[in-house]
Amino acid sequence: MLKANQLLVGILLFLSSLFSCQQQKEDFKSMNVDEFDTYIQDENVQRLDVRTLAEYSEGHIAKTININVLDDSFATMADSLLQKDKPVALYCRSGKRSRKAAKILSKKGYKVFDLYNGFNAWKDAGKNIEQ
């Protein structure tokens, strides 16, 4: 009977660890356009555009650096260009790629803030765009 109970406990622990691994918490904050705009006024905040170079060239938020999150070297480039002791405010076109980038960077120890609905929302709100 003792071995059966130990086996059952072992199985339950194994299953609970499987499910807990699948529910990873996002460790970044999404902000609406006005929150994001206010936040990036702080000079200590690093601004990051994770779209393609072509998209970035068509217009971007001022003082942003561009690292394409779809590039295989994204994490390496981010580590060489960003400082972990300063927060990172990032965006993409609509929000999907920036969430991917935010997950990558937050796992690497960066404090990350994401522009909800991305550059499209920024443009729709009539915010300044640099060419």
UniProtKB/TrEMBL annotation:
Indicate the secretion signal residues. Answer: 1-22
Q: Which UniProt keywords apply?
A: Signal, Transferase
Q: Which domain of life is it from?
A: Bacteria
Q: Which GO terms describe its molecular function?
A: transferase activity
Kindly give the CDD domains that the UniProt entry links to this protein.
RHOD (cd00158)
Q: What is this protein called?
A: Rhodanese-related sulfurtransferase
Record keyword Transcription present:
no
Q: Which ranges carry the Rhodanese domain?
A: 41-131
Species the sequence originates in: Bacteroides faecichinchillae
